[in-house]
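Quick start: load a record and inspect it. Here is Dolichol-phosphate mannosyltransferase subunit 1:
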Amino acid sequence: MAARGRFRFRPVASGRRRLAGRAGCGQRRDMAAGPRKVSVLLPTYEERHNLPLVVWLLVRAFQESGYNFEIIIIDDGSPDGTQEVAKQLEKIYGSDKILLRPREKKLGLGTAYIHGMKYATGDFIVIMDADLSHHPKFIPEFIRKQKEGNFDIVSGTRYKGNGGVHGWDLKRKLISRGANFITQVLLRPGASDLTGSFRLYRKEVLQKLMEKCVSKGYVFQIEMIVRARQLGYTIGEVPISFVDRVYGESKLGGNEIVSFLKGLLTLFATT
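Running the structure step on this input writes:
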């Protein structure tokens, strides 16, 4: 762990005042001034090696862009010492910026977001992976895109513009492309990257979607977008470069693929 002095924290701007509240899906508010504060939800499981770097990159991205922020680490009882690393990061950056909110065991991604939102004080929430697949440098672009179109959701896309995937073998790329294609044909959600999990949400929008979504595993992210369209929320997209995890092994296996297909068919039948 790096010394405290090397990562001296610089104050950031507190953002700009939100102009009006939002009572429901049909009532929009003017968010052209951008978020007052961004809460990053960072679910972790055995990410001891990746966590220090992704947190450092997040802090740097927010410092350079001037947005107020907090990073909420939701660890599901990692046996590799991830929580000990998170506690050290709290000391380095301050407990107002890094919040460790652990759970006893693995309980699923959706419930991790629900757990993290209980502690989030930002008016916008970023969800992302902690394994360095999602580079924090794109978050300021998400915020700019949100301000540009007053979007309820901004999603990172690997399949549009100069977006792409790095570090995957041909099999993994074919699985991802195939899953995305099948989903587009069955559900027609109006977004180019449905299986990605790097997104910016209005807090109240994410809360509403979490109430509506019932899927688990990889279908969960797809349902979030499908339900968003059903509820009339607007979605912007920013091309991103997805890089395969730096440390550790991918958690995608045969069982996950079968579960994905079953979940997708269930979602098709119920939407």
